[in-house]
Amino acid sequence: MLNHNVVCTHNKGDRPPGKFAIAFSPITEINIMTYETLTQQAIPSSARDEQATAQAELYTHLETQAEAVAPTQDPLTSRDRRIISEIIEVEPESVRTIWIEGGITVWVQFVEGGRLPFDRDWFATRVAEVKATLPETPRERNERLSDELEKACTVFGLYYGEIDWLSFSTKLYQDGRFVGFVGCNQQSWYARPRQYGLNRVAASAELVIGLLGVRAAVAA
Hints:
Residues 4-41 and 64-73 have low confidence and may be disordered. By secondary structure, the chain is of the alpha+beta class. Helices cover 40% and strands 19% of the residues. It has helices at 26-39, 45-69, 78-88, 120-133, 138-156, 205-210; strands spanning 95-101, 105-110, 115-119, 159-160, 169-174, 177-184, 189-192, 200-202. The radius of gyration is 25 Å and the shape is elongated.
């Protein structure tokens, strides 16, 4: 998930640099283009061919290095992609992944190739601003609740059955034994040991599972 507990060093009105089709730092590309313009008339055609070849090799090298520092697993949820797309004004589906390089630069990688760099503090502050105002979709809510439930079940050595995504409810099991029902409504998490009966409510999945009388699993 995106981390935004940092201090902003940019004005809120700052705009992110470049378009997502650019594969490298806009500064690098501008420098190369300027060099070509100033020297094109003075360099023979054969030398320009060699320069073009060397430039292509440089691009390939930079692309390889950038891929090397990219994460091998996608850390983003659909909500993360919506937040990023709001910040850099692209479609959520176009965002492939994101990572931080050197603790300073946030890189956004795109599905169809290309990536853009952003200052970490500026980007993280914008994440906090967008996240605070962006409504959660039903799918994003289910993703968040299922992640929380999975972590809670790990604590108690439990597993859950098929989830009813409309009401977000499921059955809990331990070593093949039925433990109880658990779910989450608009107010809180709830659990009950039988299909019918009073719900026991709590603020988190871990707390509500504990109300079923299940003890935390002891590490081997």
